[in-house]
Amino acid sequence: MKIEELKALLKEMTIEEKVGQTIQLSADFFSDQSEDLTGPMNEMAMTEEKKYQVGSVLGISGAKETIQLQKRYMEKHRLHIPLLFMADIIHGDHTIFPIPLGLGATWNPDTVKKTAEISAKEAAAQGLHVTFSPMVDLVRDPRWGRVMEATGEDKLLNKRYARAFVEGYQGTDLKQDLTKLAACVKHFAGYGAPRGGRDYNSVDLNENTLREHYLPAYQEGIDAGAKLVMTAFNTIDNIPATGNKRLMRDILRDEMAFDGVLISDWGAIGELVPHGVAEDNKAAAIQALTVGVDIEMMSAAYSEHLIDLVEQDETLKELLDESVWNILRLKNDLGLFENPFRGADEETESLSVFSDENKKAALTTAEESIVLLENNGVLPLNQEEKIVLTGPLKDSNDILGAWSWKGDREQAATLAEMMGQRLGPDSLSIVDESQFFEGQNSFFMNEIHLSDTVIVALGESSEMSGEAASRTIISLPEYQMVLLRELKKLNKKVVAVLFNGRPLDLSGVVPLVDGLVEAWFPGTMGAEAVTNVLFGKFNPSGKLPMSFPRSVGQVPLAYNEDSTGRPMTDEKRNEKYLSRYLDSENTALYPFGFGRSYTSFDYSECTLSSQEISMETSLTISIEIKNTGKIKGIETVQVYVRDKVGEVVRPVKELIDFKKVELEAGESMTVEFEITEKQLRYTHADHSVRSDAGEFSIGIGTDSSAELTHSFYLEK
Ligand code: GLC
Fold this sequence. Notes:
Elements lengths: L2 H10 L2 H7 L1 E4 L11 H6 L4 H4 L4 E3 L4 H14 L7 E4 L12 H5 L4 H16 L5 E2 L23 H16 L11 E7 L18 H17 L4 E4 L3 E2 L2 E2 L4 H11 L5 E3 L8 H4 L5 H11 L4 E2 L3 H12 L1 H20 L12 H7 L3 H14 L1 E5 L11 E4 L24 H8 L5 E3 L2 H5 L4 H9 L2 E7 L18 H11 L4 E7 L15 E4 L7 H9 L66 E3 L3 E2 L3 E2 L5 E9 L5 E11 L10 E10 L4 E8 L6 E2 L5 E2 L3 E8 L8 E5 L2
Parallel strand pairs: 1-2, 1-10, 2-3, 3-4, 4-5, 5-6, 6-9, 12-13, 12-14, 14-15, 15-16, 19-27
Antiparallel strand pairs: 7-8, 11-16, 17-20, 18-20, 20-23, 21-22, 21-26, 24-25, 26-27
Helix pairs in contact: 1-14, 2-13, 7-8, 7-16, 8-9, 12-13, 13-14, 16-21, 17-21
The structure holds alpha-D-glucopyranose (GLC).
The site of alpha-D-glucopyranose (GLC) has 7 residues, from loops.
């Protein structure tokens, strides 16, 4: 529809029809199941008539369902304005990829973009228009259950992934390309830093930290063209984000130049009341519309009060028009006025959903996400070994993780099944660890006794991470630790495979194992990916996108911490009055960027092309990497800098570039990075983002423990 026609449509709409567009209902309100909806309808201040005025539906799927509903809805709507269909396609639609924290471990934005393209194609064929993804919240606290949904603790990595997701979902022509979805960057802002790691809790970020570390990934998603942003449940500056004018008007709309649709998170407008900043839904409606929340997801403030409020207040009427204009533009950008059924097609759906091609991509992505944490030579396994597989997750298909939308666990093979396909019955014995605990362990002990290596599958259930799944203890469940300790006594080689949705406290695990594989929740093809890594069919190359602490007492923890006035350094190790603990090292057990390989890489001394750069000139830092092992491997080479003196305190180091390189056994490669002034900019006290002249340290390494061995100057 042309812009003039769209403006004419807005003019033609009644206030009731305009308010309708700002309301989003879940799909069950429209299901023809006989379930009694009286309660939910009342809660939403809904009537049958108002229901057919709403602007969007969330949580629907299936071409048949979306076509049916759109048809029914369009017939009833006076102006035939089509519905928007939205859903949480977070790491796959039917074909499920590793959880985003696992995707973060690939250090491969191209891989992540591919997963978004496939997810969009599967969902668009069912008639979906919007995905509530990417979640780009920066995370430093593994107690928070939704770290599984984030891509990690570093703003550069998160920026690269935010762009990859948005470009993968939206493509370059959302109107014509019917295999794409509109993307929704969430949760704005700072949702990943709740006090105590407890979901929905208040956030204490100072504005400089918010801007320096947390906002860049949202900005990158917006710059990549994301059509929607979702408000966060938490407070910022002690004001709930969903009602925070400075955050949503001054920062999001003005400074970050976001002009798309701002949608509340589920119930978040209504939650302004329990937050204690609105005395009732009427006040909440005024507050949310004033800050520019265009769509209310599943609370009743707008449906209950907006018509009356707008009829009495010209300002609110103008604000309502702005919101409805944003919504109509989104529908128009998706081409829904010309084609309300857009990509929905049962034939296309059956061809594109869970196709072999998509499963293959899920397998390779899962392989690329796996991080090898420990290996004292026990891996890769060889076919001649006698292997015992045990542990509570050995035969679990609960490996898709939270937010797996239409993913079906029944379509996910288990580790036992995949290993059984790789090894014959005389090489693989799958034993139930419960026997061990029930004292009937003669068979169990005998099998272990006869084996060479024990693979033990451990970790979390998918419900132990995700939304409203925060934990105060982040070690493995105690019975799993008991099993590991008992296995250790048997003097066999033990490899632990972890299926989990957060960095765990593995301090107690490391002394008990010879191999340790972090598989996250690896998705539909995860078991095959793990098996391929265990047997060396894929040489693991994943790198941690988030620090693994030595203890939960360290969190929140991140590699790019402040120096403090009393930094704990090796030289001062024996001094008392330093920023340190009495009972733990400050460092992570496994640092950001860490991950081993079945081969080894040697890093030469790095060299700088110059000792200084300016606004106009750059330098090149290069290093020679050699694969000193016996097999091909992939290494992620990382560049870290430190700004020696800033107007505000600067991190002890920060990632400013990285490259994944593949090297044959014995092969050497010179890897180069261009360093420019732009990469050295930071948020000053007045919130301006610019660089300062001065000295910078720089270093290249295999993870964030890299030494900053060189320095250069930025001249102004
Ligand atoms: C949830 C989540 C949000 C999700 C929305 C719709 O509460 O916070 O990420 O997109 O509701 O399901």
